Amino acid sequence: MQSTFLAVMTTRADSRAHRIAEQLGAVCFVTVLTAIAAQVSVPLPFTPVPFTFQPMVVLVGAAALGARLGMTSQVLYLALGMAGLPVFAASPTLPQGVARLFGPTGGYLMAYPLAAFVAGWLAERGFDRRYVTAVLAMVCGLAIVFASGVLWLGLFAQPARGLSGALATGFYPFIVADVAKLLVAAGVMPGLWRLTGIRGRSPSRISEEK
Question: In the chain, how many domains are there?
Answer without folding.
Answer: 1
